Amino acid sequence: MIKLNLDKSKRYLLACSFGPDSMALFHILRENGYIFECAIVNYHLRKESDKEVNSLLQYSSRFNIKVHALNVVEKIDKNIESKCRDIRYHFFKELIDKFGFDSVLVAQHQDDHIETYILQKQRQNYPIFYGIAEKTMIFGVNVIRPLLAYIKQDLLDVCQKNNVPFSIDQSNFDTKIKRNKIRHEIVGKMSAQERQRILNKIDIENKELNKILSSLNKDKLCEVDYALSLDKVPLAYALNYYLKKIDNSLYLSSNNVGQVISILKSAKPNGQFPIKSRVFLIKEYGYFTFSTDRLYDVNYSYCIKSPLKLDTPYFYLDFTRDTSNRNVSKHDYPLTIRHLCRTDYIFINGYRVDANRLMIDWKVPFRKRLIWPVIVNKDGKCIYIPRYQKSFKPDSDTNFYVK
């Protein structure tokens, strides 16, 4: 008999695909009096998907269980697994925010746990947890996997013994897919003793991993010097820990970790570097972070015909007061305040200085360079570039500052 370690006073959202795993969990939740509703996503990637959604709606209506169905209109033909995951969990987040569910329940089981561990080892991953964690947070969604102690056959037995309908995704039998190959040719052939040995191994490795993660100074993970002070293995786990704070679905392989180390060690203090699909490293004068989007130059331009106040997303100015500290006189109007260009230059004490040289000398962080403003007079001459000061804080007398 399958027992769930869940709180009956809480409201759950069951992630349901109409496969045997989630339908078995549906039955167990219903039979044991748990409060739950279902969420299903139709990605339209298989011809059976419409029928599966309708079958779940019909079955759920017999027990007055509400189903929230998302019909995906956009075509998904690249990074399919990652894209579907993003769509799914953003949908779950919307439902939780709207209806106040406590957690999302996912019907992953012991076979999935072991498969994931083997896959992590084959890919030479440095995860923050080996296998699948019972509880985690994904895109701000509290996720619980209550079936990790049970094998796939246990869940099939629940469905078959209780006449619970389900659908089998035939693509799960394609052993050209690495996870499927592990599922059918390794995990599916394990004896009970072999399973227990690998489960014990996973447990031991997670305890060792926890020691490594606990030893890290989490507040200094963004500092290049601190990162490079770590040995390679702790650093690899630290980088994945840092990355997963940004997107829990992403990870760095051994090769990716090597890339990051080379970039952190390089003499180039500033820049944006692609690491893998959807992962970019942003390095900025002794600090670094990860981004899931490439940062692009921001193009903007504001024309000022006379002295006034202007508050924009990029800068604030009040030129109704004295502007001599910004090298602006009444003869310079109309002014243009726009984004800095690589070809910009300014004259300082009679000497021409390239704007890019100033950005380097002032150690302007990479992301700030993308929005840094310049003031151009009516003749198209760059007359002012605000100096970067790391600890600058505007006060009531400040007539111009960068956001």
Please give the structural blueprint:
Blueprint: E1 11-15, H1 20-31, E2 35-42, H2 49-61, E3 67-71, H3 80-99, E4 103-105, H4 110-122, E5 135-138, E6 141-144, H5 152-161, H6 178-185, H7 192-215, H8 224-229, H9 232-244, H10 254-265, E7 270-276, E8 279-284, E9 287-291, E10 301-304, E11 309-311, E12 315-318, E13 335-339, E14 345-348, E15 351-354, H11 355-361, H12 366-369, E16 373-376, E17 382-384, E18 400-402
Parallel strand pairs: 1-2, 1-4, 2-3, 4-6
Antiparallel strand pairs: 5-6, 7-8, 8-9, 10-13, 11-12, 12-18, 13-16, 14-15, 16-17
How would you portray this structure in words?
The chain has a six-stranded mixed β-sheet, with helices on both faces. Helix content is 35%, strand content 20%. It has twelve helices and 18 strands. By secondary structure, the chain is an alpha+beta fold. The longest helix is centred in the middle third of the chain and has 24 residues.
Strand content: 15-25%
- For the record, the CATH class of the largest domain is Alpha Beta
Number of strands: 18
Q: Overall mean pLDDT score?
A: 93
Spans where pLDDT lies below 50 across 5 or more residues:
none
Alpha carbon gap, first and last residue: 60 Å
Under CATH, the topology of the largest domain is which?
Rossmann fold
CATH superfamily of the largest domain: HUPs
Tell me the CATH architecture of the largest domain. Answer: 3-Layer(aba) Sandwich
Question: Could you tell me the radius of gyration in angstroms?
Answer: 28 Å
What characterizes the major β-sheet?
A: 6 strands, mixed
Query: What class do helices, strands and sheet pairing give?
Result: alpha+beta
Listing every helix as H and every strand as E from the N terminus to the C terminus, the arrangement reads EHEHEHEHEEHHHHHHEEEEEEEEEHHEEE
Work out the helicity level: 25-40%
Tally of contiguous helical segments: 12
Q: How many structural domains does the protein architecture include?
A: 3
Widest β-sheet, arrangement of strands = 3-2-1-4-6-5
3D shape: elongated
